[in-house]
Amino acid sequence: MNHNEPDDPSEVTSPRKARRRFIASKRGTVKDSTTRAYKYPTKSFVQFCEDRGVETTGEIGGHVIGSWKRERQREVAPVTLQNNVKHLLVFVRWCESMELIDYGTADRVKVPDISKKQQVSDETVRVGQAENVLHYLDTYEYASREHALFKLM
Length: 153
Prior knowledge:
Layout: H1 9-12, H2 15-26, H3 32-51, H4 62-75, H5 78-97, H6 127-140, H7 145-152
Keywords: DNA-binding
Region (Disordered): 1-27
Domain Core-binding (CB): 13-96
């Protein structure tokens, strides 16, 4: 064995380290809101991997992703699950491009289909919650589409 050869990245990179690198790669290339959208599902996935003893990205395959998806399905609304899986697949494709996960892994994961009814929530936002959201948008996303829409609502 030649000790000057680098180790296989999929055998030495933890899911947590891969996530950090992924999030860093998104900063400056996509909107901040898009980067934030990737953070929670990938954090949930990394925690899931760590809880199950998945130590390297090379151990991540369709079975691990499918198990995470089934667990998330019990925790969140269908539309949230759909969005979480979409965002996770961007991370998985990035890992594939970095040779951290076997190429083609993302192709084996199905994004859940949801009905029009499942895409809409009939929950109301309490006044205090609305004020907190508006304060955040006023401070950090002033004049964004989300800010304008929320202000109008």
